[in-house]
Fold this protein.
Amino acid sequence: MTVASVKIQNLKKVYQGIKGKQVVAVKDVNLTINPGEFVTLLGPSGCGKTTILRMIAGFEIPTAGDIYIGDTRVNSLTPDKRDTAMVFQSYALFPHLNLFDNVAYGLKIKKLPKDVIAQKVKDILAMVGLEGMDTRAPNQLSGGQQQRVALARALVMEPSVLLFDEPLSNLDAKLRIYMRNEIHKIQRKVGITSIYVTHDQSEAMSLSDRIIVMKAGQVEQMGTPHEIYAQPATPFVADFIGMANITPGKVTAVNGDQLAVEFLGITATKKNNGKLKASDPCKIVTRPEGLKLARTGTIPCQVVSSVFMGESQDYVITAQEQKLQVKEYNPITKEVFAAGEKVFLNVDLDSMHLI
């Protein structure tokens, strides 16, 4: 199996909308995906992530820009001429063919010898945990098994690049978690370059080497899951990835590479990113798990709501006229505060981030 890079240069896609009005679905996107890397395009509906995937696959033609798979510019190549395979949201299995023939379909189109096809299908079914099921029809399989068939059908073609179009969105919550772990395990075993589209942040966080967060057809931020979560570049990224409290702050002093930042009535010291000056306004991102409630502390607050979620106690509080979310894990070992109580908020200053 050949593993290839994917390079996107100044990619743009414009559709003709109602009354001739142009709709820009993708605008000047530049990306490089390294061989063997698992990259997720993440964003809300209509942000352009699926359009980019379909342009890589050849199902959509770019309005402008270039797409390279390895060293080959593929803009003018039809989908069957590109060294890619796609796993679809709807599985797209042939209902009249059994599991073996569904997986073997592409190999038969390539006119490979029967014994080669049989061995390849046997090997790939073993890899995805479906050995011994080759005579079953799609309607005899569970949703998770059907998704494995779709994955096996793509992998058996030994493409250089594997594309995933929201493949788990039709599964229930527990099965989604199971299948994303399976996809992660198989991708790591095969080492294939993979591009995954989803609006589910938990899928993106658990599967990806890098996440590309998109908004309105453009890249908002790209980075590792840790970078995206801990160091969001914009309020949109902070709010879209997990839960975030975004509060106003102000730089009160700059001392070399250190900033003094005032927020929620306290002053914190943070490393200067080189962009902020004394008296500059800023935004402070704190995650709910980086905040703690206690009987004593530095920031007076009042509990607005207190909800037991099993693994956590989720609070909404007000402090300094700001409404904030607080998440306390393993609440059965901690004091739980009720709505209406006046307590104190403590902030883990190391986990706060300036935008």
Notes: Residues 108 and 114 are 8 Å apart (CA to CA). The chain has two domains: 6-237, 243-354. The domain at 6-237 is CATH 3.40.50.300 (Rossmann fold).
